[in-house]
What does this fold into?
Amino acid sequence: MLSFKLLRETKSVLINLLECQLRNTLSRAISTTPSHFKYRYLPTLNDPERDVEYSEPGYSHEDDGPLIQIPTRKQFREQVENIKNEFKVWKQEVKDGLESNYDIIVPRDQIHKIYSFSEEGTLEKWSTLCDANDGTGFSSCSLTRSPSGHALFSGNLSTKLPLDGRTVRSGFCSAIGPRAMKSFKRKTSYEWSQYTHVVLKVRGDGRQYLVNLSTEGIYDLNWFNLYSYPLYTRGGPYWQITKLPFSKFIFGNRGYIQDTQVPIPLCDIAWIGISLTDDIDGPFNLEIEYIGLEDVSSHTEEHAYETYNFDNYFYK
It folds into this structure.
């Protein structure tokens, strides 16, 4: 009886919040474009943080041609459909929470696949990013389906600097996994504290890639915190299975290795990604079959790097 009452009250609160958000969304859009909604500028439930006049840094709308215009009625139906889908996700979350068993132990020495790119819909959740997106370089990359049915991370890396007088280094391409989210686009984190390794089955071109783990915090100072570890690939037609221990990931911020190395907070992982920053101009290709996690029984290391605690002489 208590659980039913809690579910009913929670649902009522969420409905009120969504009604307010939908009302604000429609009023802002109507005041900006009276006759039609401009799809690019309209904030939706798919991207609740997008503002009406928002645009990516260094992005110009002039090269995209005319904007796609969607009538008010159709846009309203899309919003309602998004709300219905989010309620389904929320319902499943509540059900899983009531039935969850916190004594579950992860089987050791078994790979738990979190992204199997041969499955339908997995590849579409990933995105790509390169220096050309923010006007700091000329690299290009894409994440498509390979002829064998897996993910193909490919493109061209360029270390050429733009003549803007500000950029001092360039040349990176990244494939980024989906951000950990709950229903109604609420940010959350992945819980990987019961695992010791991240496992990848890849087929590369001999170049050195990086596997990145993001731990986005509340404050903007921590938004670019990354834990990275090299992924060495072999050229040729053969697949390789690489296991990377979490204890050896290197802590960095905006591409710079930090002096103080700390263990990864595995209970606060925002997303996982793969990047290329080896400063070698030219094309690259990395085929990925799956990314998984494993608890290796023989691995007992908690943190591979030394930490130093100096006495504070300032207050003595």
User: Anything to note?
Assistant: The first helix runs from residue 2 to 32. The chain has a mean pLDDT of 79. The two ends are 60 Å apart (CA to CA). The longest strand covers residues 282-294.
